[in-house]
Amino acid sequence: MKKLLLKIPLVLLIIKVQTLMCFAQQDPLYSQYRFNRLLINPAYCGSSNVTSGSLTYKNKFVGIEGSPETMGFSIHRPILAQSMAIGLKAARDKTGPMNQNSITAIYAYHLRLGSGKLSFGLEGGLFNQTIDFTNLIRTDQIDEALPETKKSVMLPDASCGAYYRSGEFYAGFSIYHLLQNRIDYTGYEREVVAQLLRHYYLMAGYTINAGENIGIQPSILLKYVTGAPAQVDVNINATYKNMFTVGGGYRSGDAIVFLFQYTFKQRLKFGYSYDYSISQLASYNSGSHGIMLGYNIPIKEKVRESEIIDEDATELAIAEAEAAEAEAIEQAEIEAAKVQADAAQAEAEANAEAQAEIEAAQALTEAVEAKAQAEIEAAQAQLEAEAETEEAARPITDFESIDLNMIKGVITSNGVGLNRVLIKVLNERAEIVYEVNTTENGEFSLENLEPGGYDIYITKKGYFDQISETLTIGIGDEKAIIQNFEMRKFD
After folding, report:
1. What is the rounded CA–CA span in Å between residue 28 and residue 261?
2. Domains in the chain, ordered, with CATH?
3. Which of 72, 134, 190, 378 is most deeply buried (CB count within 10 A of its CB)?
4. Positive or negative torsion for Cα 271, 276, 280, 281
């Protein structure tokens, strides 16, 4: 009966291959990924200061003939003072007549981000899939679209990821099968192919210090593949003295998971997982079993076993080590700040005398500049006084054209006429053609002028300082036609 149950879905698979696009089997999900996150994220490579190797095995749906069997191997270590890391991973998955094999190399780059560490990882290698078509039940024995022998394909494959850890918290995101290679066993080069679809993984976890030597580690994993419903893993583990770890979890639509791991002196690790199936096949199988065996080799020589950091199962120890390191760094920064403050104080005292000399020099410079400015102002005053002693004239107004033969005007100061102010009239050739003095009332008149352009000037002769800049000039019998002239100097 169980053998028949296996063959029925295989027959349906072949029917789909003949009629529409189908997709390759999803990657197997190890329950032990909680102890070795490299299985689902290449950025985890080299996250601990050890060379870490592990072997994993899982038998899914025990009791069904041809049920999936998965085996894996991984090894990784940091290099260049833990700024980078390299690794190697191999896996084999067998399900009925289908075998999938892969071997990939891993590179990761680590950098500090705040109080934590951010890593980026790349994974690349070869993917092989083999199907023995002779073991399939055919609906049409003469279907030329399907091979009648064992067929195998070899394809390149690549993956990437990012991983962040800070104290008790970690989070990661990865994408597998970036190339999404197409697989065609028919030889007809049509759209009836299988395809390696991208797998997306998003994970996060936190370690809670629940007491001396006890850590509680809740975590979550979200897995998504195009064309399939998203799958969620919710887990919680408890660790005692960094040696014993027990836990459980729930995987949506698939299983309830139980976990156990024993770590000996932070080096040798043994883990076991049991998945109790809750899917539609639960009545036909007795669950899934997984085994993990790992070993850590310290990178630095003469490192005590208590100093080895194994992130796979000792998040609590990492948090304590980082707290001690942060305290030491803070203390060193305080001491450095004190030394720097003392040096600054000594430098300030040493520069005090120099500062006093600079201020004295500045004061002397200001005094010299003040004296020079006073001398300049005195010279300017002297020049102005000398200029006032010279005879000068200011124009009253310009007439570009005079049609009458008489111009009358008056020169006043604050409304009082000024007498004996000399009026000069110049023609366009700057020749003096007329001179007259004002009367007692400040009045003057210019007669018998020929039409033309003239300039009228007044000379100082002791009166210039008394003249307000108001002047009324009448033309003919018209009075006050032009008033308030701006007086210009006549050289």
Report:
1. 21
2. 26-186+193-299 (2.40.160.40), 406-486 (2.60.40.1120)
3. 72
4. positive
Please report which confidence band the pLDDT of residue 75 belongs to, taking 50, 70 and 90 as the band edges.
very high
Mean pLDDT, residues 278-296 taken together: 85
Identify whether the C-beta of residue 120 lies closer than 8 Å to the C-beta of residue 43.
yes
Q: Please, what is the average pLDDT of the chain?
A: 76
**CA gap 408, 392 in Å, rounded:** 23
The structure tokens listed for 189 are 């080069």
**C-alpha distances out from residue 93 to 149, 183, 272, 465, Å:** 20, 17, 19, 117
Nearest to 138 by CA among 125, 127, 147: 147
* Higher pLDDT pick, 207 / 462: 207
pLDDT of the residue at 317 = 58
Task: Return phi, psi of residue 307, to 5°.
Answer: -95, -10
- Strands (E) in 302-392, as ranges, are none
pLDDT at 196: 85
pTM listed for this prediction: 0.57
- Which token pair is 35? 């102890």
Residue 412 has which token pair? 């006043």
Q: What is the pLDDT of residue 19?
A: 33
The one-letter amino acid at 476:
G
Characterise 265 by phi-psi region: left (phi > 0), alpha (psi -120 to 50), beta (else): left
